[in-house]
Specification:
By secondary structure, the protein is of the alpha/beta class. It is 46% helix and 22% strand. The radius of gyration is 19 Å and the shape is globular.
Length: 200
């Protein structure tokens, strides 16, 4: 009996220690794949923004090996979620961070590179900016996408999510170099990996 009680006591301590050192430090990161359903987003030469953002979002989740980081995908298939739905899901999840994935297009085909937008809300501004800079630096360091700026913007999700949010523009489909990179398997895996590296 004493042995059994001793075993249970040790087991309880072990479980408590495990929870104390893992669960409490766990971060929840929401990846919002932009557009979806009838909303294709940017569409150049048959390449659709919604498809690329979904593919990269899934790669981020697949590549994550950090037990202290939980990746939650806001959409995992080609469905339409309006902005209010997205914000409602985000605020119900109460994540540490949201990264909203997007791809641009521009009449100027020379316009290229990766940029980010962050909230003007002071409560999350510093954290959002720090993450945004890390993401841009890490992806630009590959030499495949030029680095643009981190800019404040009044986008709906940035304004209404109750957490730090980075709206990430992962290049322009209208630019040939960007397009070739962000539509390739290698490019998508590299972008996903660099995003993960930036949110450790």
């Amino acid at each position: 009996m004493k042995t059994k009680i001793k075993f249970l006591a040790i087991l309880s301590i072990a479980v408590f220690s495990f929870l104390a050192f893992t669960t409490l430090d766990k971060k929840t990161i929401v990846i919002d794949a932009g557009h979806g359903g009838q909303d294709a987003g940017a569409d150049i030469r048959g390449f659709e923004e919604k498809t690329i953002t979904e593919a990269i979002a899934k790669k981020i989740k697949e590549l994550n090996k950090n037990a202290n980081v939980e990746i939650v995908l806001l959409r995992e298939s080609d469905v339409n979620l309006d902005l209010k739905e997205r914000v409602s899901k985000i605020n119900n999840l109460k994540p540490n961070l949201v990264i909203s994935l997007h791809i641009g297009a521009n009449k100027n085909i020379e316009s290229n590179g990766i940029g980010a937008y962050i909230s003007q809300k002071k409560a999350f501004q510093d954290q959002s900016k720090k993450v945004a800079e890390n993401v841009l630096d890490n992806i630009a360091a590959t030499g495949n996408l030029a680095k643009r700026n981190v800019t404040e913007a009044p986008f709906y999700i940035l304004k209404n999510a109750d957490c730090a949010v980075v709206h990430l523009e992962m290049g322009n489909l209208s630019n040939e170099k960007d397009r070739n990179y962000i539509t390739s398997e290698k490019g998508q895996v590299e972008i996903a990996d660099k995003i993960l590296e930036s949110i450790k």
